[in-house]
Amino acid sequence: xxxxxxxxxxxxxxxxxxxxxxxxxxxxxxxxxxxxxxxxxxxxxxxxxxxxxxxxxxxxxxxxxxxxxxxxxxxxxxxxxxxxxxxxxxxxxxxxxxxxxxxxxxxxxxxxxxxxxxxxxxxxxxxxxxxxxxxxxxxxxxxxxxxxxxxxxxxxxxxxxxxxxxxxxxxxxxxxxxxxxxxxxxxxxxxxxxxxxxxxxxxxxxxxxxxxxxxxxxxxxxxxxxxxxxxxxxxxxxxxxxxxxxxxxxxxxxxxxxxxxxxxxxxxxxxxxxxxxxxxxxxxxxxxxxxxxxxxxxxxxxxxxxxxxxxxxxxxxxxxxxxxxxxxxxxxxxxxxxxxxxxxxxxxxxxxxxxxxxxxxxxxxxxxxxxxxxxxxxxxxxxxxxxxxxxxxxxxxxxxxxxxxxxxxxxxxxxxxxxxxxxxxxxxxxxxxxxxxxxxxxxxxxxxxxx
Length: 451
Ligand SMILES: *[C@@H]1O[C@H](CO)[C@@H](O)[C@H](O)[C@H]1NC(C)=O
Ligand SMILES: *[C@@H]1O[C@H](CO)[C@@H](O)[C@H](O)[C@H]1NC(C)=O
Ligand SMILES: *[C@@H]1O[C@H](CO)[C@@H](O)[C@H](O)[C@H]1NC(C)=O
Hints:
Layout: H1 5-8, H2 29-38, E1 41-47, H3 52-55, H4 67-70, E2 74-76, E3 86-88, H5 105-113, H6 120-124, H7 135-143, H8 149-157, H9 166-174, E4 176-178, E5 181-182, H10 189-198, H11 209-212, H12 221-227, E6 232-236, H13 243-248, E7 260-262, H14 263-272, E8 278-282, H15 299-315, E9 322-328, E10 351-354, E11 360-363, E12 375-377, E13 385-387, E14 390-391, E15 397-398, E16 400-401, H16 404-413, H17 420-424
Parallel strand pairs: 1-8, 1-9, 4-13, 5-16, 6-7, 6-8
Antiparallel strand pairs: 2-3, 4-12, 9-12, 10-11, 14-15
Helix pairs in contact: 5-7, 7-8, 14-15
The structure holds 2-acetamido-2-deoxy-beta-D-glucopyranose (NAG) (3 copies).
Signal peptide: 1-19
Keywords: Hydrolase, Signal
InterPro entries: Alkaline_phosphatase_core_sf (IPR017850), Phosphoesterase (IPR007312)
């Protein structure tokens, strides 16, 4: 018998774990038919800059490979001089940290491979594997002059306990969490956000000026849905300006920018049953008082946003046919122990950048970024289930990633993959159950706490 939150009140989450459906294969006719039958509205929010081992490192749900279940994980303080000692992952993280970890392409290189300049050919040949050992070293290199060494090590290695992040703990216990979900690009925000909405960053490897000028005009989900008369809205915490525009203009095709709506309109639409078929929500970024969880914004402020969105969707009339996807753009330079896999190039573009050592590094967009927290939330998903690797349309068992969203939406709304990367990505339509007791899902998420 499934013990539900309804029995024990709002704070006691379902104690049993429903198995994922065994009958439907991802992308099969039966699975797509079931997806279309159950899901009429999709709500997607992309939060900022957190790795799985950071934000979900303290979640005890079985199947999540993290510090509390499988760790601790350690990094040397200095990659070349191990006599300096090491730092290991520990419970209790800061509500925010002041020293934003390096998450550019060279920063990710040293964090994953121990060098700013890894040999691309050796990576592709499988001869150079990420050790995920350089997070503390890079944080110390950047900030040792202004911050204590143990504080810096804690900033990148420590993790949030279940008690520190009650909303996220609720999502994990009541819905489906992905254990193997990676960002599309081992670099910063805007290229990753472009992968989510368009399946490529069009050769952009960093947050360059083109994003601010709406100069990326490759085919996007917004343009695609408009061409099919599928309704969508692009909501932002601050409509029409400020940091929200920084995200919203990531890819400008399909009037994604000019048709922006405010977040208060999202709450009205959710409670009153007026959500469009596709809802895209931009959190605010990135300093004190913003809600994306990006340093120096507080994790607890991000929890408030996620709770408010959940509560509005859950209590609105569209809940029974809604799929709410919560993901992150990238890992923000926080430690994660899972090596990011190789992935097909979305196009033939490359990105060249000077490393901190003044070498030139050229990236071909042929591997994924670090592992991220991602949940799918719906009355139609199992409670407390952890999904590991996916199976793509070629039958390969591979990691999920940013472009798994476009792969799945393509099945829901009948459009082809925009890029080879999207085509390669496993979809998650099979995690939508054929039968469920949707009354079992909590009416609201618990209150976030300040810590
Ligand atoms: C690591 O140790 C080496 C050798 O002592 C030193 O030259 C280097 O500056 C150290 N690197 C960092 C980032 O502290
Ligand atoms: C979308 O709606 C317009 C206006 O009603 C119509 O002309 C067009 O054929 C529709 N397109 C599709 C793909 O349904
Ligand atoms: C990359 O270039 C090659 C050779 O010109 C071409 O065959 C291939 O289709 C291109 N790939 C993509 C994804 O555009």
